[in-house]
Design brief:
single chain; 196 residues; mainly beta; five-stranded antiparallel β-sheet; 41% strand; elongated
């Protein structure tokens, strides 16, 4: 007669997981009031604070991305004209690596001492590692500025500029994590008994 079957070996341990995909982002502000450099003079807006950052950084006016991908860049400025009479246009736009990004100019028209405007702009752009972005402004009135307001007992500080950047897409072919290592083999079952 046939012998009885041996017992099954134990299962091998699970392999380690593949590498996950990181999300890159940053939030940067300035607590400094910044005046345009002169009539019709493009002026880069600088930053003083990192509010949040992963894979991004700033240096002066430059926001630097450390990984390639498609990014959304959103910025909001507190703009005002402090003197100078008649209404004046204020242009606000984005540069990448020192070059104007086409079709990113926004124009608001402000009269002197007529309050602060808070425009918000958001664009999408493809970046390589170590590309950098800058927000520029200019005006026909040299008394144009982005204004920072200090905190008091009622409200927090109001930065002169807030810029957020986040990766929303990556290059095709890099979406999968690397493969995990294989689990180890289970031990062999014991041999069955011999038939009679």
């Amino acid at each position: 007669t046939a012998g009885t079957a041996g017992t099954s070996g134990r299962n091998g341990i699970d392999g380690s997981s593949g590498a996950s995909i990181a999300n890159w982002y940053g939030a940067f502000t300035s607590t400094t009031t910044q005046v345009v450099g002169g009539v019709n003079t493009p002026t880069a807006i600088t930053y003083t604070n990192v509010e949040l950052s992963n894979g991004t950084a700033f240096s002066g006016s430059q926001i630097i991305v450390q990984h390639e991908g498609v990014y959304e860049i959103g910025y909001s400025l507190q703009v005002e004209v402090t003197s100078g009479g008649s209404a004046a246009p204020v242009d606000i736009w984005l540069k990448k690596n020192g070059t104007n990004i086409i079709r990113t100019d926004s124009v608001i028209v402000l009269a002197a001492n007529n309050g602060t405007q808070l425009p918000f702009v958001s664009i999408l752009d493809t970046a390589n590692a170590n590309d950098y972005y800058e927000v520029y402004f200019s005006s026909t009135n040299a008394n144009t500025q982005v204004t920072a307001i200090v905190a008091n007992g009622i409200h927090p500080a109001a930065p002169s500029i807030i810029t957020n950047i986040k990766q929303i897409g990556i290059a095709v072919g890099t979406t999968s994590g690397t493969s995990g290592s294989a689990g180890s083999s289970g031990s062999s079952g014991t041999s069955g008994t011999s038939g009679t």
